Fold TetR family transcriptional regulator.
Amino acid sequence: MNKPETRIQKKNQSAILAAGLKVFSQYGFHGSTLDKIADEAGLSKPNMLYYFSSKDAIYKALLARLLESWLEPVTHIDPAGDPVEELVNYAKLKLTMSQHYPNESRLFANEIIQGAPQIGDVLRGELRTVIDQLAHVIDGWVSAGRIQPVDPYHLVFSIWSMTQHYADFDVQVRAILGDRDPMAGAEMHIENMLRRMLTPEP
Amino acid sequence: MNKPETRIQKKNQSAILAAGLKVFSQYGFHGSTLDKIADEAGLSKPNMLYYFSSKDAIYKALLARLLESWLEPVTHIDPAGDPVEELVNYAKLKLTMSQHYPNESRLFANEIIQGAPQIGDVLRGELRTVIDQLAHVIDGWVSAGRIQPVDPYHLVFSIWSMTQHYADFDVQVRAILGDRDPMAGAEMHIENMLRRMLTPEP
DNA sequence: TTTATATTTGACCAGTTGGTCAAAGTGAGG
DNA sequence: CCTCACTTTGACCAACTGGTCAAATATAAA
């Protein structure tokens, strides 16, 4: 089925995806041009189109790769683990991703803000399924009195929003914090927030 | 200095701004076209350019108007009031703004994600000043033991992110919640989160 | 070396976009 | 009714954009 990829194919495809990520995440889909991406990838435009048939194809390939790494960590939350630690760890992982892969986060944010024209169906399908399952786990923890009462869906939203904020709104964060490092305080704050929110009262 | 505006000028300028807001917030600056905006405003393209000299001018006018309504509520936080209530009320106000003016929120988000090319200086100037003052007030509350210890800057970030999330990521929120109304649960969750975070322990 | 295949490129194109301009139309005060 | 400033428009343009294509070049296997 899959034709064997040559060395050159591998190199160029990953160069194009890296360039596409950089450009798309900064300028959005419409603001990005094939010339800019090709230049960033170190290829001529026709040569780039030899590997990806269109601008859309590059964008879709990026989103597909992104969605995988987006959904995967959620499934690692262990229903049998300590609830507060599981959720705090998930939040910390998301924050680390915002720190190390801010362009991925911005690419995703751009897509969602503009109405998710490409991945709307995935959101309403896979994503919803995964989050429904997680919500069920969290509800179980609440029922067992292992965390304070909480709406599981909005809890997830608040974890996503607080962590992704540091990637998507990086410019604003840095404008306000000046020289101070955002991530140091961010991790402590978010952990604090979740612990005080969730830890059952004695 | 200011020439008196005619009835027609008022009507057309506000029509253009309304149309620009709608289009820019959905497609981003680059993805928006003058034709689309003019069409939405019910004017011909040259006629629209008679009132705003360029695409950039419309965008800048929108951002200027937006920044005002963005900064103003922060200054309403009363250092003499009850700390928890003041902060909870601010968060509720931001959430209400996300609910009633989602396009403004998305316009702002688009601008920030793309590196704030137009309003970077305002962020590092006015915004930072205002937030520095707020941070000072919050620090005072912490010192007085009226709220639990908290990093004031990251507290503000978390309020912004959690509330704006419901406007900027509306599509994702609705994809997950399905028919359920987002805002009902959102307000209660955010209020809960802040109260548990801030209310001093007895 | 030969050969078949994979890769790269310059020239090109049609559609779109932001913006211009001269000319025509409109409205309110005299 | 007249006038003069304000408003509106159709025709137009240069720059840019996504994408094509035939020809040239590099590569790997035989």
About this structure: Chain A has two domains: 7-53, 64-198. Residues 6, 8, 33-35, 45-46, 49, 53-55 of chain A lie near DNA strand D (CB under 10 Å from a C1').
